[in-house]
Amino acid sequence: MADYYPYRIATRRGDLTLIWRPGEGDAPDELVVDDLGRLLAFQNPEALREHCGRNDRVLTWEGEATLDLATVRRWVEHPGLGSVSAELLLDAWNFFEDLSHSLKADPPLPAQGSIHDSAYEKLFGGGALEPTADNEAWTDGETAAVRELLRAGLDLWERAVP
Q1: What is this structure's pTM?
Q2: Cis status of the peptide bond prior to 22, with omega within 30 of 0
Q3: Of 113, 145, 146, 158, which residue is least crowded by CB atoms under 10 Å?
Q4: E-assigned strands of 12-143?
Q5: What percent of the chain has pLDDT over 70?
Q6: What angle, 0 to 180 degrees and rounded to 10, lies between the N-to-C axes of helices 140-160 and 86-103?
Q7: Alpha helices in 55-131 (DSSP H)
Q8: Whose CA is closest to 64, among 26, 2, 10?
């Protein structure tokens, strides 16, 4: 039996809970979609529980994650208006990858190359946003690439949840 986890998304319009499932073997992680390929999103825990009960999905509630997309959007659109954590950006990046795989999105997220690889490694290491981190801080090019990727992910999210 597959493992399913609730994944709460905080947005400007309120919180939604999705169902996230880790990929098996080499398969990517994914978010659960309906028979028409639309993202399943629930406004309250009762609706989520009812859906899972009807579809024989058992949710693992331990360590429920919440992703604050409103804060991610603020950083992407207005970088000088406050700080954001490396962990939040890393979570958003991974979430948008999972969302893209789940929706078979067209257009997908921007193609990623070596600049993204470098930015991801620095983000994962925790020094990306620290100007004093020397070689571990993002370059202007890496910052721009991450903003472009996250902006595309936010656009994908908006199309997935009208």
Answers
A1: 0.90
A2: no
A3: 113
A4: 14-21, 30-31, 41-42, 65-68
A5: 93
A6: 50
A7: 69-77, 86-103, 114-125
A8: 10
**Token pair belonging to 13:** 């319009």
Q: 């690889």: which residue's tokens? A: 117
Q: 64-91: per-residue pLDDT in tens?
A: 678 999 999 999 998 766 688 999 999 9
The domain segmentation of the chain, as residue ranges, is: 5-160
Contact criterion met (CB below 8 Å) for 103 and 46: no
* Phi, psi for 110 (deg, rounded to 5): -55, 150
String of b and e for 42-53 (b: at least 16 CB within 10 Å)?
A: beeeeebeebbe
Among 158, 157, 150, CA closest to 128: 150
pLDDT in tens, 86-140: 999 999 999 999 999 899 767 778 889 999 999 999 988 888 888 777 888 888 8
